[in-house]
Structures are given as structure tokens and as C-alpha cells.
């Protein structure tokens, strides 16, 4: 039996917060192994990266999601009682509900709303001396996803809701004010959506047929029972929040176009090149750092022992930068996807495996919106990128250029 390498520190929580996205990968390199043990939040934890590890991690016979996510993450990012923490038949039922929303027609409807909103905003951007793209996209996507989901949103409420959705995304991996803002934002957002779910059920707010709000509000489990209103709110927020989080990917796409200007012309009017570009943005730039599960029952894998109940973290960022999977992983090279099938256990920016499992239900939405955004940035408008702080600090989770990507001299093509 091989011995799994172990961190010597009695607890690595602070080291994880300091190292950020590189925490697992750096230690895997140091140990010469894609698996090692440590302690996070004082609890024994196994950390993994790489394709074989991802295949293992998404084996539902060996791992469960119940109680795997730390409470601080549930209380800010994901919510409690949502699909991310379910297993077995309950997870299958809830995931099927969410995937029923992800039809090509529904995704296209969201995309058309996004296109219309982007085009409508260009005159205002032209009239403004400088635009912080991250802030603009947060508000734009909040308006768009609420309209698509059947969630009424007054113009006066857009900023407030965008701030709340951003705060939930920012809150899990920090201590202090950012985390507290995430807790408060989660509480207020769940109250907002819970009331809306109840209004939909009693007919005060007749949500459109087939809209995410109505699908979730009216969903009944295998026993014919409606979801508790707070859980229904969590699941609807699990559509709103990740869609707004696409603003980070669009900022990364704009950053990639600035750093690799040759791709502006290649993306312009070429769907295959746009697909390659978007997939490389998802691989190269930091999004979700890691995913969590617990060992369902004890087993051995590649000579390593996995005790029942042990928390396991899969390094999403590190797998997307694993040198055994991606030659020259620290170089931005969209052409690597020209003749490459997207493997569900290699490109895992939003989780691995099949979408009926624990891969993100909204991944297709993310890709579609990113492709549309890349088209707008290269075909529909021109702009300047003035000197600013565009460094990506991988110690910060989630990562974002400090300037938020400021654009100036915007003009419609």
C-alpha cells in the first residue's frame, strides 16, 4: 500500500487562503503526486487534481455531496438545500428539473435578450468617457437573466440585486467584511425570491409558462410534494447567480483580446475560431477553484486509502492547467481546441463528468453568452483599453483584474 503524501502543517486553511487557486497544484508538484492529504478547517482532507482524479471524483458510487461543502460556502455561494449538496434519487430529480430548463430554445431566448441589451447599452457607453466593463456587465446580466427567468425587476432595483448576486459570489473564500456581505446578501436574496415563489404559487404573480420561476415554483418531487419555498428560492438563485457570474468570463475574454490582439480578427465572423477562443478562456483563466465531496464508503485507489466520510477536494483550476493534459498550460493558445474534443474530465472549469451528474447545469448558457460577448467585442464595437491594473492575482478567490477592465472611446461599428 502506497502512503499518500501529507502536508506537515497541522492545518492548511490559512495557506489555502494565501495561495488561492495554486494551493493544490503547488503542493502536488512539491509532493510529486496528484493526491495528498492535509487538514482544512481542522478537518482531514484529501486533495486531488488531474484527469484520473476527476474520473474518480465524479464516481457517485464512491462519493457523496451531502455535507461536503463547508457551511461558509453554503451560507454565501450555493445556499443550503440546493442541488449541489444532494445525492441519489433526490439529486437526479432536482437536476432533471434544472436541465429541463436548459433547452436550445430557452438558451437561445436568453442569448437574444443578452444581445438586445448589449446593443441597447452601446449608445450610453459611447456617451460615457470610461466604462468599467465588470460593473456594466453585472447590471446587464442581472436585467437579462431576471427577464428570462420570469423574475420581475424594476429598474430601480437592478443595482441592488446585482450587488447582492456579486456579494454571494465574493463571500465564500474570505474572512471579514466580504464574507459578512455575502451572508447578508444571501439572506436578503432568498427572502426576495422566496416571496416571489409563494406569489407565483398562489397566482399573485402569474409567471410565464416554461419560465424558470414557474418551473421551479411548481416542481414536485417524487412524492408529489412542492419544494419548500426557501429551497425553491435557492434553486432559482442557482440560475440567476451563475449567469451573472459570466461577467467575469466576459472580462477575461476582453483581457485575452487585449493581450492577444491577433485573435480579434480570427474571432470576427468565424464561429469555429470563436468556439476555440471561448474554450481557451474557460481553461486558462481562473473561475471556480475547486469542488468538494465526501467518501461514501472506504476504498483504495492507486495505492491510496480513502476513509469513509473523508472530505475530498478536486482542483478544477489545477486540472485545467495540468501539464500532462495541456502542453504549455500557462500559455493562452485557443488553437489547442482546433482538433480536440472537449473531454468531460479534462476541461472542468464548471465541474466534470456528465450534466446529469454534478457538472454545472448552466455550462451551456455560459458558453453561449461568452460566444455572443466575444462577437460584440470584436464585431459590433471598437474601444480603447487605457493603462490600468489588469493583473490577475491568483491568491484572490474569485479572481478579477483590480480595474474591472476599463474601456474608453467606445464607438459602434
Structural overview:
By secondary structure, the protein is an alpha+beta fold. Helix content is 50%, strand content 11%. The strands form 3 sheets. The protein has a 5-stranded mixed sheet, sandwiched between helices. The chain has a 3-stranded antiparallel sheet with strand order 4-10-9. Strand 1 (35-40) and strand 2 (43-48) form a beta hairpin. Helix 4 (71-78) crosses helix 9 (177-202). The radius of gyration is 21 Å and the shape is globular. The protein starts with 12 loop residues before the first helix and ends with a strand.
Which shape, going by the Cα principal axes?
globular
**Oligomer class:** single chain
Tell me about the biggest sheet?
Answer: 5 strands, mixed
Query: What do the pLDDT scores average to?
Result: 96
Structural class assignment: alpha+beta
Strand content: 5-15%
Order of helices and strands: HHEEHEHHHEHHHHHHHHEEEEHHEE
Total count of helical runs of at least 4 residues: 16
Helix content: 40-55%
Number of strands: 10
Cα-atom radius of gyration = 21 Å
Biggest β-sheet: strands ordered side by side in the sheet: 1-2-8-5-3
Distance between the termini: 64 Å
Low-confidence stretches: none
Question: Which terms summarize this structure?
Answer:
413 residues, alpha+beta, five-stranded mixed β-sheet, 16 helices
How do you describe this structure in short?
It contains 16 helices and 10 strands. 50% of the residues lie in helices and 11% in strands.
